[in-house]
Specification:
Elements (H helix, E strand, L loop, with lengths): L10 H10 L6 E5 L2 H14 L7 E5 L16
Parallel strand pairs: 1-2
């Protein structure tokens, strides 16, 4: 075994990250695209208007791998 199983690995780092966040930081939700983000934002205004400022929906629009490209082929 190369490490002590009793030693916390991610705990101290996670605690520092949480301490650095403002208490009123919004929850960020990553969606599959801009349409999902827009629809969820609008739905939030209708169903939970009191929570609108606490949640941000962000549409992921990263590049898509082409069929047969190196990134889409199994190893």
């Amino acid at each position: 075994m190369y490490f002590d199983t009793q030693q916390p690995i991610a705990g101290p780092t996670r605690e520092r990250q949480l301490a650095a966040l403002p208490d009123n930081a919004p929850l960020i939700v990553l969606t599959e695209g801009s349409t999902d983000s827009k629809l969820l934002t609008e739905a939030m205004h209708v169903t939970h208007p009191h929570l609108v400022d606490f949640v941000r929906f962000i549409g992921y629009t990263g590049s898509k791998a082409q069929a047969g490209s190196a990134s889409s082929r199994p190893c």
